[in-house]
Amino acid sequence: MRQLGTRRASLSASLKIGDRRGCCQTLEEEEVNIPFAQDSLVKQWSSMQNVTDRNQGKSKTPIQRNKHVLNINVGGKLFQIAYKVAAQYPITRLGKLALYTDPMKKLQLCDDYSVQKNEYFFDRDPSIFHYIFQFYHSGILWVMDEMCPSNFVEEIEYWGIHLKYSQRCCRILFEEKQDELNEYLKIQKELEAELEPLGSVEQFEGKFLGRFRKMIWNLIENPYSSVPAKIIAVMSSIFVLISIMGMTLSTVEEMKHKTGKMWIEQVEVVCAIFFTSEYLMRLIASSSFKKFLRAAFNAVDLVAILPFYIQILFENLDEGEMLYHEELHKVENVSKLGKVLKLIKLMRIFRILKLARHSTGLRAFGFTMRQCYQQVCCLLLFIAMGVFTFSALMHSVEHDVPGTNFTSIPCAWWWAAVSLSTVGYGDSVPDTVLGRVVAFGCISFGIILNGMPISILYNKFSDYYAKLKAHENKTSHSLKLSRRICLKERVLRKLSECCRDDPHCHH
């Protein structure tokens, strides 16, 4: 009488031990869970050796010679699939294995073959093959939420099964999860590119004065490389603040006199010299000039120092023109030149963006804006729609009121923008009941609109900031550890040299 096998935990109740449609395992094999294939389970294929050892293995392993069943070993798990069932899907790997008659073609489809057991071995994930096995019996590819999309897609592509065989609901959820994972990996890659320094050790190898340029680059660009690099980073931030402070004080009436103006100009000259030397050192030490010029921070540095030299150029041109023009033309030129110089001096405000080079928060904010530009553009579109809609409504109900500020729709744009932002300066207010109802609707819409993207932007900003901060902490910790190791090695080397030179140490 045939001994019944115990039922195993699987996707289907029909997968039973001893059944040809299920997994053939002993009780000992069922208790041991082997999630992935191990090297010790892969046997070197040798038909002659199997034929020789057939008599030795008779007492241990029964020979399975059923011509209608495929014996599949996936990572140590045994499965049986009928030839007729596998042949229903001829484009799949097991379908080809069932249809091919040439043994060499069959060996190309599997990783190993045992002549004694008539068993095809595949060094793949057995846990995912349960879904493949269920597909051959039911014709439906089931997809579970807990599986990794990338691993699952890789496995079903190996077995030659398309995702179209799955149910529509499972396929939609799986594709959404796959899109989320791809988007996450894309952001991670861009964040790593943001954290990756422009000049690495490999990029300086083989270059002219590569070691010297790498040292200068670390001194200017990497504040965690050494104590002097940290001092230069702090000095750069201090000079930025001093420059902004000087530009601010230059607009004060008391500082426009000769003494105050002279001090501010001297401060501006010192800051410009420091920024210029810093930029030139970065440019000379850079491993790639094209990457250096395309970098956003370097463009900010260039914008920060250009106004100083443009101002000097315009002043020299003004002095030359005053020698050759009449008095009237000189006044006109001075007036035009003064407006240009004011605009150029205003460009110095962009120097504050230099703080982003050594500020994790500003870098995280910039990265968040780049990643969320679609949400930001959508928010601006909603604001524009609200401004046009409520300004038109307010003009239609208030334009007949004597002394009203809403004489036209463009005049009502300012009120709508202020109300949507929930600031409400009160310089323009409605007088009628319908106007106040429109104003209430505008304010309510503004509250809802302002609350929509805040959570998305804040969550992404906090996530990016935490990753940037963790990278900086990791980098600083590794550099400190390497410096400690180098210091310890130098101390031990000095002690050994002293002991070698001291004759008393040999006695």
Structural write-up:
- Strand 3 (112-114) and strand 4 (119-122) form a beta hairpin.
- The longest helix is centred in the C-terminal third of the chain and has 48 residues, at 454-501.
- Residues 1-64 and 323-332 have low confidence and may be disordered.
- Helices cover 62% and strands 4% of the residues.
- By secondary structure, it is mainly alpha-helical.
- It has a four-stranded mixed beta sheet with strand order 2-1-4-3.
* Helix and strand sequence: HHEEHHHEEHHHHHHHHHHHHHHH
Quaternary structure type: single chain
Overall body shape: flat
Find the count of extended strands (DSSP E, 2+ residues): 4
Poorly predicted segments = 1-64, 323-332
Summarize this entry quickly.
This protein is 62% helix and 4% strand.
Feature tags:
mainly alpha; 507 residues; 4 strands
Annotate the secondary structure layout.
Blueprint lengths: L26 H5 L15 H6 L16 E6 L2 E6 H4 L6 H7 L3 H7 L2 E3 L4 E4 L3 H13 L10 H10 L9 H28 L5 H4 L5 H12 L5 H23 L8 H28 L3 H6 L1 H26 L5 H20 L13 H12 L1 H26 L10 H12 L12 H19 L2 H48 L6
Parallel strand pairs: 1-4
Antiparallel strand pairs: 1-2, 3-4
Helix pairs in contact: 10-11, 10-12, 11-12, 12-14, 14-15, 16-20, 17-18, 17-19
